[in-house]
Amino acid sequence: TRHSAIMDQYDPEKRVGIIVDEWGTWFSAEPGTNPGFSYQQNTIRDAMVAAITLNIFHKHAERVHMANIAQTVNVLQAMILTDGEKMVKTPS
Question: What range(s) does the Alpha-L-arabinofuranosidase C-terminal domain occupy (predicted)?
Answer without folding.
Answer: 21-92
